[in-house]
Amino acid sequence: MSDDFTLAIIKPDAVRTGKAGPILAIINEKGFEISAIKMLKLTTAQAESFYEIHKGKAFYNSLVEFMSSGPVIAMILRYPGAVEEFRQLIGATDPAKAEPGTIRKLFAVSVQMNAIHGSDSVENAQREADFFFSKVERF
Ligand code: IDP
Ligand code: MG
Q1: Ligand 1 mutation target, pool 112, 116, 127, most atoms within 8 A of CB
Q2: Alpha-carbon distance 36 to 53, whole Å?
Q3: Residues assigned a catalytic role
């Protein structure tokens, strides 16, 4: 199995406001292959664990509350150089600083509610993919 994958999450703000379809269309148009996908609602404990790297930061508690506030869509996406290419496609964390045409520029409503997550390294992509998907759920 190729190592060229990243883990994406369409966040609760985007799912809630009907943006999942348009976001998936952009991902598809860019040529990312969806090799796993599911909708789920994170528990508080699961959101805490997923974002434990940010524990102690000012935005951590609020982020955990937000990410467990409603259903999300988690995906493993395959593409050459998937981690870096997907970070380019989603744009900067702060949508005000995101490049035109990026998913966050198009769909984010704030720094916190920034529509989508993308892994920031190959190591974290592996950890995050394992967090959401078992072996029989990925292709
Ligand atoms: P990233 O998602 O672009 O990798 P991180 O720094 O890893 O950004 O932060 C994780 C998530 O935490 C962000 O996507 C955003 O939802 C939220 N976040 C980051 N910084 C802030 C902030 O300063 N205020 C509120 N929320 C933030
Ligand atoms: Mg990050």
Answers
A1: 112
A2: 24
A3: 117
